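Consider the following assembly input.
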Amino acid sequence: MKTETERPACDYQMAIRVYWEDTDAGGVVFYANYLKFFERVRTDWLRDLGLSQETLRKLGKGMFVVSDLQMRYLRSARLDDQIVVTTLLVEQGRVSLVLKQQAWRQDELLAEGQVRIGWVCPAEPGANTATGAFKPGRIPEDILKLLPVRQS
Amino acid sequence: MKTETERPACDYQMAIRVYWEDTDAGGVVFYANYLKFFERVRTDWLRDLGLSQETLRKLGKGMFVVSDLQMRYLRSARLDDQIVVTTLLVEQGRVSLVLKQQAWRQDELLAEGQVRIGWVCPAEPGANTATGAFKPGRIPEDILKLLPVRQS
Amino acid sequence: MKTETERPACDYQMAIRVYWEDTDAGGVVFYANYLKFFERVRTDWLRDLGLSQETLRKLGKGMFVVSDLQMRYLRSARLDDQIVVTTLLVEQGRVSLVLKQQAWRQDELLAEGQVRIGWVCPAEPGANTATGAFKPGRIPEDILKLLPVRQS
Amino acid sequence: MKTETERPACDYQMAIRVYWEDTDAGGVVFYANYLKFFERVRTDWLRDLGLSQETLRKLGKGMFVVSDLQMRYLRSARLDDQIVVTTLLVEQGRVSLVLKQQAWRQDELLAEGQVRIGWVCPAEPGANTATGAFKPGRIPEDILKLLPVRQS
């Protein structure tokens, strides 16, 4: 159960306070709630790139959804903790992106994950997005060109 | 801080187990989560009357939303507790219903509330319910006639 | 269903962004989640007064818990909305405080509530707070003197 | 994105109804909430083996916590869906267990995950579990002997 002591570079980061709602009777942040924290940071990272949910709907008539993820829990965050959650784009494909995300309390790594988000759009154009089905598709060019370029 | 010792009659009740997700670092069920429990019971009560969410959308092109509520918290539910949550229709109007709801652990009243749910339908017919606006309206007759009749 | 158009004075306010986790299939913030937002603001207001959860435990060996509340839901917050949640101390007793809290989107009042928080401390001194019982008690003087004084 | 069409054998399963609280503005179950469903089933599986949270505390003075997990999301659950969530013990070590868990809607696999839960006990005996630290340790024999035996 190692914890890295230096916070690596990332594309975006966000301070998150731990409130009562985040904790459980073990006195620590409930394991599912790190996925909420990670989602907040992904959303704000996209918004920061000019890709708010509304823009995504307009540009691509679709949205990103999580298709798979891995999580490692190393140390527990507790009530009142101020943590920093980071996100880094590590893989950019035509239909999905892979992000590495971490939660830190100062120099302690609390949890980290790798999250694949895939692009989906309504299976039938103009369908009611609250009730209609979605299907995977290519990430629209107008979205791809706003993502950070990585040397590989 | 009195707790009634006899469970009054109700229209519908449901056993709910308390899991880690429901608790907070105080070791008890987080206060907002009783509203989740109450919503589950209202939804199952409506479904039991033949009014699933899908039927509501078909019959009335709308749904019920909470417009106001009062809550009293008397005793705390804890991890692993098996509680019983009840609902009773106490007021039936043309645009809203009022439900009295309680959470019990055996003969201990833990929390109780009064919840007004109002009928809303899309502000523009055929609008995308995920993004469009809703406006209050009269509860459709096909729904009203399925509700329990009270003598008054 | 009136919405006040001027934001009244308050003791503390906080900007809150609406994320996916806060919304439901109706496309709006789930009604129980306003109680999460209100709790965040109460906690930060107390922290701002010098009363972090840790300080509360040290000063008073106890904590505040919600004993009753009223909520009114006027308009819906949606994904990506930036809202402002306020809190105002409207009643200060020896065993409880009453706070008026509101959620605003610019000049639209979305929801408002009145929340009574009562002081509780372990029923037996030194008990494990995760498993032991709590009992209501007088708010410690060291806490009372940090609260804003109101003319009445 | 394949979906298996036959539900494999498992150690324990549980029907779970999707309520408003579980969904998000995309009209589907929010991705973090499958972790809540999986936790409910693990807890009920342990309880069914005679290992309620209270028994775990008594037998071993500790509890299981999630140390790592992988998730795959294949299809979306929606409001009112009745799903079945399963759990299967696939690895039993001295300090942790690995469970394979799946969520099904009839013959459609919606999501699946592999979850490692490790045993932790208070770092200092008799510490307040709400505020004290935990450390990993060997799963107590009294707990191990209640787990299903696998041929290997």
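The first strand of chain D starts at residue 12 and ends at 17. Ask yourself how this observation constrains the way the partners meet.
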